[in-house]
Amino acid sequence: MSPTSSERLDLPGEVLRINARYLREFVEAFDVCPFATAAREAGQVERRVLLAESPGAADVVAAVREIETHASAVIGLLIFPRFAGSFEAFDALAAAARTERGSDCPFAFAPFHPEAPYGTQTPAQMVMFFRRAPDPTLQLVRFDALDQVKGARPDKMLFDFSAAAWAELERRDRTPALSERIARDNFARAHSAFERLRAVLDDIRADRLKSY
Questions:
Q1: Considering the domain boundaries, does residue 210 fall inside one?
Q2: Which domain holds residue 52?
Q3: Are 73 and 44 in contact (CB under 8 A)?
Q4: How many domains is the chain built from?
Q5: Which of the two residues, 18 and 36, has the higher pLDDT score?
Q6: In Å, how far from its chain's centre is CA 75?
Q7: Position 162 pLDDT exceeds 70
Q8: How many CB atoms lie within 10 A of CB 175?
């Protein structure tokens, strides 16, 4: 019996291909992240595809701990192509995993989701636009890397993170309203190229829907 199309599909490979399009054509092409290109070229990005449909916090923590073993990893991406829940459900999963992992975790967590709700009226609303990855994805960025970027180019910080992550950054550096400045700068950047940004995301999503 010949394999079905679903059996022939290399799902993890396709997920990584679609994610690579998102990183290259959206994140890097529009210079949204201060270390995306350099980290990729230096081999400092670790990506994992997790195929569970209903992952628990323990599953996420296990993957986070595995990436922690890679000392060179500045950015980690945990991609969940079969997660069918809402952004709110995925955000809750990320929060539970962050709590279970503990305060000694070297990474800031940022959940991304194709249906992340966003608005265009304020910087705070626009933050979620940049989190509309083609698959639910938990992004990990080392606090040490954030500290370096914050000192060098505070206008180019990567997206936005959880309240806990910002609290840790503010504890290390008392610069006032850091997260507000970053949201404001990203707001201006998005409005200067919003239609192009949205078109790229739509094209990548269409590719994803055709592929798996």
A1: no
A2: 6-203
A3: yes
A4: 1
A5: 18
A6: 9
A7: no
A8: 12
pLDDT in tens, 112-136: 999 999 999 988 888 889 889 999 9
Please report whether residue 212 resides in a domain.
no
141 has a pLDDT exceeding 60: yes
Compute the average pLDDT of residues 13-34. Answer: 91
Q: What pLDDT score does 1 carry?
A: 38
Whole-prediction pTM: 0.83
**DSSP result, 56-100:** -HHHHHHHHHHHHT-TT-SEEEEE-TT--S-HHHHHHHHHHHHHH
Burial 91-104, CB ≥16 within 10 A → b, else e: bebbbebbeebeee
pLDDT at position 111 over 90: yes
| Structure-token pair, residue 156 | 């180019």
pLDDT in tens, 79-89: 999 999 999 99
The answer to whether position 143 is within a domain reads yes
How does DSSP classify residue 26?
I
3-state secondary structure of 109: strand
Task: For residues 211 and 194, give the distance between their C-alpha atoms in angstroms, rounded to a whole number.
Answer: 26
| Domain annotation covers residue 74 | yes
Rounded Cα distance, 167 and 171, in Å: 6
Amino acid at position 184, single letter? R
Sheet holding 137-142, edge to edge: 45-49, 75-79, 137-142, 107-112
